[in-house]
Write a structure and sequence with these properties.
Elements lengths: L20 E4 L4 H12 L4 E7 L22 H14 L3 E5 L1 H17 L6 H20 L4 E3 L5 E5 L4 E5 L17 H5 L1 E2 L7 H10 L21 H11 L9 E4 L5 E5 L22 E6 L4 E5 L5 E12 L9 E6 L7 E7 L5 E10 L6 E6 L2 E8 L1
Parallel strand pairs: 1-2, 1-4, 2-3, 4-7, 8-11
Antiparallel strand pairs: 5-6, 6-17, 8-9, 10-11, 12-15, 12-17, 13-14, 13-16, 14-15, 16-17
Helix pairs in contact: 1-2, 1-6, 3-4
Length: 383
């Protein structure tokens, strides 16, 4: 990992400079284009890049082949600095490794070990990126924070609430990962790419001669170098001094009949078909993970479909917290096609979702996000 001396030191706390925007720069084409577009608008810009994970940790996972491209690598830090030099604005690297490990990596591992399937990118946005970066932006005198997320923000003048909306480019929409943002965070944030398609972003990057204009997109989690979650969880647990025992357990059908064995429930997710470790003669899927009894329950595709679930830590965005049922379309994972449902608030932090038709593989630990057309009404974690 690069030492702090290799990066520019942050300036002392300063007064807010009118119009100054801090850009969260990952080193990729999206956030770099944000900085270029803001400059074209005549707005003063300052770049902030987060150092989140020491890429040299867990060297046994690196392998000998070419590294898969991940966000927030050390190469990305230097790409962000190259863009800042090209566009001639100040750029700083801030070390959030401790917060990232405490709020994203460790919960990610613990959730898998408990039989849940977490969404690390949502946790990162909610618990690491926005609030700390907004504080840092204010410290260096910036009024607002801009990021390369594909989503939109608008102020509803009637309700006086800030609303989060899907991106214009539905294939790139990232609103699913942003449902945890608060009204204060939305009021001080900007998503300049929300009205653009990916092709338009690439074109803008080339027009402004950005050195990352043709850089490929990040595809893997920054802290999982091999792309293999199971290997990462086992290696991280060893490094942390709590190696997994790989205590074997039973794989059972819906009637409780033992049809196979496993070496750890962290190796399975709801809806998984491949890698069950036995041949059944027909397609079987993981229906549930019983951590308490160290069991994995499997069944057919029809049994994988359910019509209700409960969510916790609910955050309402585009409307006040509701005490009455709310009709919405609900998305239960990033690639899920939103489905018609009714959200029944149970209290301020919990709700029950009843889908009009059963949905496949509703998974504990994933986010359920409620939409009214393009508006994100809110979301919560599936229990």
């Amino acid at each position: 990992m690069a030492s702090a001396a290799q990066f520019d030191a942050l300036p002392a706390r300063s007064k807010v400079q009118s119009g100054l925007v801090a850009v969260a720069m990952s080193g990729g084409v999206d956030s770099s284009t944000v900085a270029a577009l803001l400059q074209e608008q005549g707005r003063p810009v300052i770049g902030l890049t987060m150092q989140l994970w020491n890429q040299r940790r867990l060297p046994e996972l690196q392998g000998n082949g070419p590294a898969q491209h991940r966000c927030c690598s050390l190469d990305d830090v230097y790409d962000a600095k190259r863009v800042a030099r090209h566009l001639q604005f100040p750029h700083y690297v801030v070390n959030f490794e401790q917060q990232f490990e405490e709020r994203v990596v460790r919960p990610f591992v613990n959730e898998y070990l408990s039989g849940r399937t977490p969404v690390a990118c949502t946790n990162c946005n909610t618990d690491v990126k926005f609030e700390p970066l907004l504080r840092m932006a204010r410290q260096i005198g910036a009024e607002r924070l801009a990021t390369g997320h594909y989503a939109r923000i608008r102020k509803n003048e009637r309700t006086e609430r800030w609303e989060l909306l899907r991106a214009r480019d539905d294939s790139k929409d990232q609103s699913y990962f942003l449902w945890g943002l608060t009204q204060d965070q939305l009021s001080r944030s900007e998503f300049p790419l929300g009205e653009l398609t990916k092709d338009e972003v690439r074109a803008a990057a080339r027009r402004t001669n950005l050195p990352v204009a043709d850089k490929p997109e990040s595809m893997e989690l920054c802290f999982v170098p091999s792309g293999n979650y199971v290997q990462f969880i086992e290696a991280y647990s060893r490094e942390s001094g709590s190696p997994l025992s790989n205590r074997g357990g039973e794989i059972v059908d819906e009637q409780g009949l033992v049809i196979g064995r496993h070496n750890g429930v962290h190796q399975f997710t709801i809806g998984q078909r491949k890698g069950l470790g036995f041949a059944a003669g027909k397609p079987l899927y993981v229906l549930s993970i019983d951590r308490q009894n160290n069991r994995v329950v499997v069944g057919d595709d029809q049994s994988l479909r359910t019509a209700t679930c409960e969510v916790e830590n609910v955050n309402w965005i585009s409307q006040e917290a509701s005490s009455i049922p709310v009709r919405a379309v609900v998305k239960i994972r990033h690639q899920h096609i939103p489905a018609d449902a009714t959200v029944f608030p149970l209290d301020g932090a919990h709700a029950r979702i009843a889908f009009d038709t059963p949905q496949r593989a509703i998974t504990s630990g994933q986010g359920a996000v409620f939409y009214d057309r393009d508006r994100v009404l809110g979301g919560g974690w599936i229990r």
